[in-house]
From TrEMBL:
InterPro entries: TAT_signal. Residues 1-33 form the signal peptide. This is Lipoprotein. Keywords: Signal. It comes from Streptomyces lacrimifluminis. It comes from the Bacteria.
Amino acid sequence: MRSTSVRPPARRRFGIGAVLAAGSLAVTGLAFAPAAAAVAPTSATVAYNCGLFGGGSTVLTATQAGTSATITVSSNITAPLPLAADSIASTLTLAKATGGTTAFTGTKNPATATGATVTVGPLTGTVASGDSLEAGGGTLKMVLFGITVTCNPTANQSPGPFVYE
């Protein structure tokens, strides 16, 4: 018996190959496409006074995905003792330009050595399209070892408020 194999016509192979190549290019293009920046600016600096715990220049880094937003707080506050990862309950309250406030909360933080600066976040919150949020008029509260540290801004954030799409 003679073995016969059935091969698709050349034009069919070309058509399938072209579709696969186009699909690969489309997926590659998506992988390298820049992420949409839904909030502007994505980073701002504000000075906080945290009383006995110090204070100073703090960087707020914002992201947005629809109505969900996050802010990471890189503070100038130093840890009085070693802090375990995810051990700081934090609430960042930002003032809305239209009145009221929006709170960003969470318990995310990296492990921090004594004397190192404290970073918390990402803290999560809910925003609406067009929200303009500013640190001035809000607070940063962190609970460390059962002690609430309240930080008040000493000036408005720079370069300006976070404006969400």
